Amino acid sequence: MNALMHANFGITDFWTFLLGTIFIVLLPGPNSIYVLSVAAQRGVRQGYRGACGVFLGDFVLMLLSAGGVASLLKASPTMFHLVKYIGAAYLGWIGLQMLLRCWHGLRAGDADAAAGPEARTSAPPTQSNPFRKALLISLMNPKAILFFISFFIQFVDPRFDRPLLSFGLLGLVCEALSFLYLTALIFVGVRLAEAFRRRRRLSAGMAGGVGALFIGFGAKLASATL
User: Fold this and answer.
1) pLDDT tens digits, 146-163
2) 41, 126, 190, 225: which has the fewest C-beta neighbours closer than 10 Å?
3) Per-residue pLDDT, 46
């Protein structure tokens, strides 16, 4: 039995974990939607900066899960509710900012149309740091929080004498799948980038749509249960 556990590195039912992780990664969530929108509006480099923020946020959640924070949240409903409401409020705030940006962008588009071609050459407004924002979004992501609390830890055998190795291997699988998926999204987004640069109203409309999605993600997190 011990030899078998060491051969599997303390991971139980790896193929089920892999299949479940693929489906979970492919589900639309705040991380993927944000990286796609950044790549579409600002290009490959900024898209990957956002992706790196997602990778770091997921890594932090993995460490917290391995360190027992997931079990602590499951054992303390009060703490879990505090974390999820803070996360929901943050995602809702991001969504509201994006809706406001959409409103201002649409108004600016109308003003440019009235002013003529000269107005369209004005410099774009200052953008936020995609790495920092993606990191915070990842840490407040309801899909990631629930994944690491209720799914991730089920595939680590508690009898294995080196559980950090098990968590590390599972984490590498998660990060590899996330990298492949976000890379695909970045290049899909870049194909849309030129259209957004030429059409301010279209770019503003996308920001508004993403903002509405983030408000929805916040509401989903606020209603999440363990």
Assistant:
1) 677 667 777 877 777 777
2) 126
3) 92
Predicted model pTM: 0.71
Q: What is the pLDDT of residue 71?
A: 63
Contact 162, 6 (CB under 8 A): no
DSSP the chain: -HHHHHHTTTBSSHHHHHHHHHHHHHS--HHHHHHHHHHHHH-HHHHHHHHHHHHHHHHHHHHHHHTTHHHHHHH-HHHHHHHHHHHHHHHHHHHHHHHHHHHHHHHHHHHHHHH-GGGGGSPPPPPP-HHHHHHHHHHT-HHHHHIIIIIGGGGB-TT-S-HHHHHHHHHHHHHHHHHHHHHHHHHHHHHHHHHHHH-HHHHHHHHHHHHHHHHHHHHHHHT---
pLDDT confidence tier of residue 70, bands split at 50, 70 and 90: low
Which residue shows structure tokens 């987004």? 189
CA atoms of 161 and 52, how far apart (whole Å): 31
The half-sphere exposure of 33 on its side-chain side, counting CA atoms within 13 A, is 23
